[in-house]
Design brief:
This protein is of the alpha+beta class. It has a single domain, classed as Alpha-Beta Plaits (2-Layer Sandwich), CATH 3.30.70.100. About 25% of the residues lie in helices and about 40% in strands. The protein is built from 2 helices and 5 strands, in the order βαββαββ. Strand 2 and strand 3 form a beta hairpin. The longest helix is centred in the N-terminal third of the chain and has 11 residues. The N and C termini lie far apart (about 30 Å).
């Protein structure tokens, strides 16, 4: 079953290769969507794909890359739309 989730990740998540690492993780899991930095210092991500793979991406985001320190992760589960063809860093 395909699903979609929007994440807001807070903590020390900018300047620690969070977006690039998320991109590599999502592509490795064959997920589509995007990741971006926010002006308030958080990171947002949207994943679409097979539910089991999306869950793996969410679990990965709870910790992030080695230099990150995630203090809060907010999940919003949504209906799958299939609107993306790959995973990208957006600005």
């Amino acid at each position: 079953m395909n699903t979609r989730v929007h994440l807001r990740i807070e903590g020390r998540v900018q300047g620690v290769f969070f977006r690039q690492s998320t991109l590599e993780t999502a592509r490795g899991l064959d997920l589509n969507g995007w990741v971006r930095n926010c002006a308030d210092g958080s990171v947002e991500a949207l994943f679409e794909g097979e539910q089991s793979q999306v869950l793996k991406a969410v679990d990965w985001c709870r910790q992030g890359p080695p230099a990150a320190m995630v203090t809060q992760l907010t999940e919003k589960w949504l209906d799958f739309r299939g609107e993306f063809v790959d995973f990208r860093i957006v600005h």
